[in-house]
């Protein structure tokens, strides 16, 4: 399979936030908009009528030839495709009706029309794959392959034309599949000359997770990970039902609360306040179920300090609050918006590579996440499958950075997990010395070298990552950092150092390093 096809499949294969936005949007409209409900009822009647008329003619159409598909596409192309919500909704409703009546070809054509007018076809395709009968989806996919796949590829490529923003001084390049040298698929490349010691870019995180012991102690800011000066005191989290957190400032407290905390760990309404929603005020039992689901997930996260899962839950919450307009989808300097591109948070994460390690999260994890989503906004849970949960967790856990100040700390409690399950973060000093974990949209792409030309630094005393050049560098140079400790230790020979770092890379990061230093040392053996 070509890497281009892979890109399309990757783009089509995850998009949890697209699912969430869809779920929230429809749930919200269904609950609040009388016209919207009328429209759905009217459409259903119309579909039933047309179904009755054409049942006989459509019955034979479950096996469709390519010629028939092409003919149908020609017909669709000749129709006006209005981009109105009503048109989109009516096509989806019709597709659902036809599909449930076993009329897979006409159902697929309706779903396909909806796909043609949807702003992000890969997201919708993903939803279809999870919610529409496979016989119908098969035909939709065949239509996509014939018609939409080239456009989807173009969208995937366009993303990398506008991201990262020019101000970051780096660009993302894809290695040609025929490349002689082994290495990651995508690499960050400099767009200007920099001198050793210079800051290449600064980046605020998309999300952070303070180490659990520090959260309990209240000595670091839960949002920006800054150490809290005892003399200045800290701000506690307001109206939290089940978790403890402290903040260094009001902006950090507000950002944390609005981006994810209210949704995950309070009983605040998950959707914006609308008067017509009052009839849907949650019952005491529903509130108790939400509180219990939050407490159970929190206990699970804290028991083994499951940072990857905590970041994933925060990510889901941040999607929802951004989709609902209850919190900004972007913070200053986190580069979630590409230059000129209308990209959402998930557009970044779905392009990251996924960890093979998180292929099987503990069996109890998925039901806990689902229970929380269900208790927060009934119906939402249907859109998070075991696959999308695994996929999102794999991407998030794999691309995190450990945040360390100075040389890092000495008092981090050892992990209770088996070494192969333990959290792993790229870091200057080692996961054992960090104060917390953070996710960055640009830095996620930094690859490893045992002779790196850059290093991440947190010298502002917060989770803001500064990428520092460790050598004089030229435009076009590929940037690399060290994922593991690459410095030869006292009493360690060069071959021992080589063996140690290559073992750690193979175990933790699942690749055999072929950087210039590894190759040179191999030739000297
Ligand atoms: C955290 S991801 C890095 C981001 C990755 N470059 C991407 O495209 O999303 C880490 C993975 O990138 C790949 N990688 C990073 N540095 C590499 C290198 N020097 N050689 C081979 N693969 C590398 C490995 O698959 C590794 O497990």
From TrEMBL:
Gene3D superfamilies (UniProt xref): 1.10.220.160, 6.10.140.2220, Mitochondrial outer membrane translocase complex, subunit Tom20 domain (1.20.960.10), SET domain (2.170.270.10)
Protein's membrane topology: Single-pass membrane protein
GO annotation, cellular component aspect: mitochondrial outer membrane translocase complex; nucleus
Subcellular location: Mitochondrion outer membrane
One Pfam family named in its UniProt record: SET
Keywords: Membrane, Mitochondrion, Mitochondrion outer membrane, Transmembrane, Transmembrane helix
Residue ranges of every copy of the SET domain listed in the record: 164-484
Gene Ontology biological process terms, A to Z: intracellular protein transport; protein targeting
Family according to the record: Belongs to the Tom20 family.
Protein name as it appears in the record: SET domain-containing protein
Biological source species: Mycena albidolilacea
Source species taxonomy: Eukaryota, Fungi, Dikarya, Basidiomycota, Agaricomycotina
């Amino acid at each position: 399979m070509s890497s281009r096809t892979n890109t399309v499949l990757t783009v089509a294969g995850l998009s949890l936030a697209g699912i969430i936005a869809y779920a929230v949007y429809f749930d919200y409209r269904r609950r609040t908009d009388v016209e919207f409900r009328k429209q759905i009822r009217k459409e259903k009647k119309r579909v039933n009528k047309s179904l009755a008329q054409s049942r006989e003619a459509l019955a034979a159409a479950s096996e469709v030839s390519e010629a028939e598909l092409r003919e149908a596409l020609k017909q669709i192309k000749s129709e006006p495709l209005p981009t109105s919500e009503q048109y989109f909704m009516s096509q989806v409703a019709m597709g659902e009706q036809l599909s449930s009546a076993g009329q897979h070809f006409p159902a697929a054509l309706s779903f396909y029309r909806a796909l043609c007018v949807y702003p992000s076809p890969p997201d919708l395709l993903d939803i279809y794959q999870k919610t529409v009968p496979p016989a119908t989806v098969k035909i939709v996919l065949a239509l996509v392959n014939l018609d939409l796949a080239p456009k989807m590829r173009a969208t995937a490529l366009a993303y990398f034309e506008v991201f990262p923003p020019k101000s970051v001084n780096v660009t993302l390049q894809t290695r040609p599949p025929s490349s002689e040298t082994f290495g990651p698929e995508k690499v960050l490349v400099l767009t200007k000359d920099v001198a050793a010691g210079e800051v290449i870019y600064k980046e605020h995180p998309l999300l952070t997770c303070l180490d659990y012991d520090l959260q309990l102690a209240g000595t670091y800011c839960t949002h920006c990970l800054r150490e809290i000066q005892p003399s200045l005191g800290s701000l506690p989290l307001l109206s939290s039902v089940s978790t403890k957190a402290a903040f260094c400032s009001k902006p950090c407290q507000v950002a944390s609360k609005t981006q994810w905390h209210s949704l995950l760990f309070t009983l605040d309404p998950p959707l914006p306040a609308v008067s017509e929603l009052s009839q849907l005020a949650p019952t005491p039992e529903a509130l108790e179920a939400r509180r219990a689901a939050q407490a159970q997930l929190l206990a699970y996260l804290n028991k083994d300090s499951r940072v990857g899962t905590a970041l994933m839950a925060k990510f889901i919450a941040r999607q929802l609050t951004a989709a609902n307009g209850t919190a900004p989808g972007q913070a200053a300097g986190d580069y979630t918006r590409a230059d000129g591109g209308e990209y959402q948070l998930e557009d970044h994460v779905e392009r990251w590579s996924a960890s093979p390690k998180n292929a099987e999260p503990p069996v109890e994890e998925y039901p806990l996440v689902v229970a929380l989503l269900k208790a927060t906004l009934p119906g939402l849970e249907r859109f998070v499958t075991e696959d999308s949960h695994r996929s999102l967790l794999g991407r998030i856990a794999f691309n995190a950075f450990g945040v360390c100040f100075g040389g890092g700390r000495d008092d981090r409690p050892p992990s209770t997990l088996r070494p192969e399950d333990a959290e792993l973060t790229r870091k200057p000093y080692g996961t054992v010395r960090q104060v917390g974990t953070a996710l960055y949209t640009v830095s996620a792409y930094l690859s490893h070298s045992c002779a790196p030309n850059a290093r991440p630094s947190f010298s502002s005393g917060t989770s803001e990552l500064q990428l520092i050049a460790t050598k004089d560098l030229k435009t076009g140079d590929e940037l690399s950092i060290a994922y593991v400790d690459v410095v030869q230790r006292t009493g360690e020979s060069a071959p021992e150092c080589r063996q140690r770092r290559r073992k750690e890379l193979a175990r933790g990061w699942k690749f055999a390093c072929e950087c210039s230093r590894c190759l040179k040392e191999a030739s000297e053996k």
